[in-house]
Amino acid sequence: MNLILDNQHLDHTLYEKIQHGQKDFPIQFYIDELYTFENKKFPLHWHFELEFFIVQDGPLRAQIGNQFIELSPGDGIFVNGNTLHSFEQVHKEDRCKCPNIVFSAEMIAPHSSIIFQKYVLPILINSDLPYFVLYAGIPWHKEILNKLSSIFSLLHQYGLKSPFGDFPYLPLNTEHREEACFEMQVQCVLNQIWQSIYRHLDQIPKIAQTQKAIQYQVRLQKMLAFIHQNYRFEVSLQHISLAANISKSEASRCFHSFLNCSPIEYLLQHRVESSKHLLSYTAYNIQEISLECGFNSPSYFIKIFKRNTGMTPREYRANSNST
């Protein structure tokens, strides 16, 4: 079962509410340590920015929309903007560290420029290109992977430290940021990568998204919005399905297609995640928290919380306070 990301970082559509990089230099380098995440997974989310993600250890399973892709060590993947995606370890005992960059398309060229209109926009709006996999055994893929390593190295040495401590990242050296035209070098290599992608568009497999998959995603986000807005109250499968004007069975198929869980399982996950914040940052007692998060009794809250986390709410609070 997938676990939703911290409620502080995702909105009701699974949009990741994070500024990657700075407004004047919108790129950020991360190393996602998947073994540190619950269920060894970075949960399903989306952002406007583009992403290159490299598998340093593995194997990994990527979910893009409702499609699943196996990735081996040395592989990479490009994820287009506005695309639901997640990454998880295949083997729970692995310790996977995955370097990646998330960046605005304006790192390549300004929106108003002919470069953006001619070479960037056609890829951004290509519905047949939600992602593509980079394999080290393909020469032009290998060239892109090498250039990504160069960008990682530059951002590691000179880049700004990520302010998001909740997300694993490699600490960056900020003392010599002005050396070696750092920002220009990053942009230059990123442009070289983009040129290679554009020149090889005819070699990138088309990932045709069916109308059914697109329809499922729209319905899912309507139902997620309803859950996030109403989880404190009594919510049934009927209520959730009506939010997307579909049957209960269709709602269940939609959730299983993207999230591998039922609507009610997701509702309970969300309630548990919401309760974690109250346990960590408020003095509310267990009964108050259970009611605040939509559970009809403290005993049921304790049962579901322990089933999802492996500990009782009181144990979680004590552990949170000790750290």
From TrEMBL:
<dbReference type="GO" id="GO:0003700">
    <property type="term" value="F:DNA-binding transcription factor activity"/>
</dbReference>
<protein>
    <recommendedName>
        <fullName>HTH araC/xylS-type domain-containing protein</fullName>
    </recommendedName>
</protein>
<dbReference type="GO" id="GO:0043565">
    <property type="term" value="F:sequence-specific DNA binding"/>
</dbReference>
<dbReference type="InterPro" id="IPR013096">
    <property type="entry name" value="Cupin_2"/>
</dbReference>
<dbReference type="InterPro" id="IPR018060">
    <property type="entry name" value="HTH_AraC"/>
</dbReference>
<keyword id="KW-0805">Transcription regulation</keyword>
<keyword id="KW-0238">DNA-binding</keyword>
<feature type="domain" description="HTH araC/xylS-type">
    <location>
        <begin position="221"/>
        <end position="319"/>
    </location>
</feature>
<keyword id="KW-0804">Transcription</keyword>
<dbReference type="InterPro" id="IPR009057">
    <property type="entry name" value="Homeodomain-like_sf"/>
</dbReference>
<dbReference type="Pfam" id="PF07883">
    <property type="entry name" value="Cupin_2"/>
</dbReference>
<dbReference type="Pfam" id="PF12833">
    <property type="entry name" value="HTH_18"/>
</dbReference>
<dbReference type="InterPro" id="IPR020449">
    <property type="entry name" value="Tscrpt_reg_AraC-type_HTH"/>
</dbReference>
<dbReference type="InterPro" id="IPR018062">
    <property type="entry name" value="HTH_AraC-typ_CS"/>
</dbReference>
<dbReference type="InterPro" id="IPR011051">
    <property type="entry name" value="RmlC_Cupin_sf"/>
</dbReference>
<dbReference type="InterPro" id="IPR014710">
    <property type="entry name" value="RmlC-like_jellyroll"/>
</dbReference>
